[in-house]
Amino acid sequence: MSNAFTQDMTGTGQYIEMPESTAQDTVAALKGIPTRQELLELLSNEIVDVTFDKLSGDERTMKCTLIPSMLPQAQREDKLSQTKIRNLEDKVFVVWAIDVEPSAWRSFRYDRVKKVEVDHMWGNGHADGANY
After folding, report:
1. What domain range is 20 assigned to?
2. Does pTM top 0.90 for this prediction?
3. 117 and 61 in one domain?
C-alpha cells in the first residue's frame, strides 16, 4: 500500500503522510462488511451467513463456505466444480462458494453484499471473534 499526503486538518496547515485506501476498502468499511479478499479468506476457514440482494431485488441469506473439506468432489460434467471455472472469480466481482444446506455451488455479486456473519452453530467462529 502506498502513502498519500493530505492537509492536516488540525489547523497547522502542514501536510501529513497518510496510507491510501482503495475504493473497495472504503466501501467495505462504510457497509460494515469485509473486503472481497477478506471475505474469501473468511469463507476458506469458516461457515458464513452472507446476506445479499439477488439480481431480482429479493434479499437472500446464504450459509456458505470454501472450507476445503466441505467442497464437493469435482465432477467432469459439473462445470462449476472444475478448478478452471472456479478460478474465474478473480476476474469478476462474483464470489463463488458452497451453499452448505444443499451442498451446491452458488454465486453472488460482492457489490450486492449487505451483511456477513460467521455462523457459530456450524463453524468454530473466526479466530479473533470478529463478526462482520
Report:
1. 1-31
2. no
3. yes
